[in-house]
């Protein structure tokens, strides 16, 4: 089994390395015709505006939209989540082109600037039930977006509770993120809709490959056929945690 990884900019090498640890081949995708050689795709984190400009330069948007429309499994992390969203707010002047398909509204830079990047333990019941391991995941948020609203067909896989002193961008207006006192409480950071998966954080920067294994299984369930070596990652999780460093706050 081969999984395509959009390799315009960002953490595509880290995704390929995570797939390799599962025994799955990652294929770098930079041109529209290369999408024909893969049946699933990861869109990595990176600088979303730069990635959009490069995708436009290589005329990738029509091919990427067709890939999504055909129902092929696609996973977007951080900037990749922004690309897949039907609507994005908090963008720079003029905005950026989106692929769309994921029925949600994303705030492009919800958690602030690069220096406000952080790690947090988030509850991942679906991932733990499918892949084993701990009921939580150590998520790395780097200049991260957040999901403000989701449609009825979108399954929420993870959210994060904001501390009372946590600063977020002042232009947030979504009432869905507020309690009765007007203070922010929980924000959605991982969702699934059909064959689309999206995370606001960076699983590829940790030794925990359960999200990658989960996506590989999504590809298998879509009728693609998966490698037996990627059947589970939970049993190897503790050893993997010792092998790779993670982003430190």
Automatic annotation (TrEMBL):
<dbReference type="InterPro" id="IPR021196">
    <property type="entry name" value="PdxT/SNO_CS"/>
</dbReference>
<dbReference type="InterPro" id="IPR002161">
    <property type="entry name" value="PdxT/SNO"/>
</dbReference>
<dbReference type="GO" id="GO:0004359">
    <property type="term" value="F:glutaminase activity"/>
</dbReference>
<dbReference type="GO" id="GO:0005829">
    <property type="term" value="C:cytosol"/>
</dbReference>
<feature type="active site" description="Nucleophile">
    <location>
        <position position="78"/>
    </location>
</feature>
<comment type="similarity">
    <text>Belongs to the glutaminase PdxT/SNO family.</text>
</comment>
<feature type="active site" description="Charge relay system">
    <location>
        <position position="202"/>
    </location>
</feature>
<dbReference type="InterPro" id="IPR029062">
    <property type="entry name" value="Class_I_gatase-like"/>
</dbReference>
<dbReference type="GO" id="GO:0042823">
    <property type="term" value="P:pyridoxal phosphate biosynthetic process"/>
</dbReference>
<keyword id="KW-0315">Glutamine amidotransferase</keyword>
<feature type="binding site">
    <location>
        <begin position="46"/>
        <end position="48"/>
    </location>
    <ligand>
        <name>L-glutamine</name>
    </ligand>
</feature>
<keyword id="KW-0378">Hydrolase</keyword>
<dbReference type="Pfam" id="PF01174">
    <property type="entry name" value="SNO"/>
</dbReference>
<feature type="active site" description="Charge relay system">
    <location>
        <position position="204"/>
    </location>
</feature>
<keyword id="KW-0456">Lyase</keyword>
<dbReference type="GO" id="GO:0008614">
    <property type="term" value="P:pyridoxine metabolic process"/>
</dbReference>
<dbReference type="GO" id="GO:0016829">
    <property type="term" value="F:lyase activity"/>
</dbReference>
<feature type="binding site">
    <location>
        <begin position="142"/>
        <end position="143"/>
    </location>
    <ligand>
        <name>L-glutamine</name>
    </ligand>
</feature>
<feature type="binding site">
    <location>
        <position position="108"/>
    </location>
    <ligand>
        <name>L-glutamine</name>
    </ligand>
</feature>
<feature type="region of interest" description="Disordered">
    <location>
        <begin position="226"/>
        <end position="249"/>
    </location>
</feature>
<feature type="compositionally biased region" description="Basic and acidic residues">
    <location>
        <begin position="235"/>
        <end position="249"/>
    </location>
</feature>
<protein>
    <recommendedName>
        <fullName>glutaminase</fullName>
        <ecNumber>3.5.1.2</ecNumber>
    </recommendedName>
</protein>
<dbReference type="GO" id="GO:1903600">
    <property type="term" value="C:glutaminase complex"/>
</dbReference>
């Amino acid at each position: 089994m081969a999984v395509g990884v959009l390799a315009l900019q960002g953490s595509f090498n880290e995704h390929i390395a995570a797939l390799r640890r599962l025994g799955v081949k990652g294929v770098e995708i930079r041109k529209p015709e290369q999408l024909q050689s893969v049946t699933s795709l990861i869109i990595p984190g990176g600088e979303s505006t730069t990635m959009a400009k490069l995708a436009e330069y290589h005329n990738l948007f029509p091919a990427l939209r067709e890939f999504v429309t055909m129902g092929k499994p696609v996973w977007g992390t951080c900037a990749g989540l922004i690309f897949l969203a039907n609507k994005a707010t908090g963008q720079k002047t003029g905005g950026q082109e989106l692929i769309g398909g994921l029925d949600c509204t994303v705030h492009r830079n919800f958690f602030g600037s690069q220096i406000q990047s952080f790690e947090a333990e988030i509850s991942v019941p679906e991932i733990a039930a499918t892949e084993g391991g701990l009921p939580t995941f150590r998520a790395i948020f780097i200049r991260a977006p957040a999901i403000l609203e989701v449609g009825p067909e979108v399954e929420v896989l993870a959210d994060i509770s904001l501390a009372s002193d946590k600063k977020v961008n002042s232009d947030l207006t979504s009432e869905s993120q507020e309690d009765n006192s007007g203070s922010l409480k929980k924000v959605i950071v991982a969702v699934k809709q059909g064959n689309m998966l999206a995370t606001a954080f960076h699983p590829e920067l940790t030794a925990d490959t359960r999200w990658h294994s989960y996506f590989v299984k999504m590809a298998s369930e879509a009728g693609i056929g998966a490698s037996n070596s990627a059947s589970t990652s939970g049993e190897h999780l503790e050893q993997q945690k010792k092998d790779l460093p993670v982003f430190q706050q």
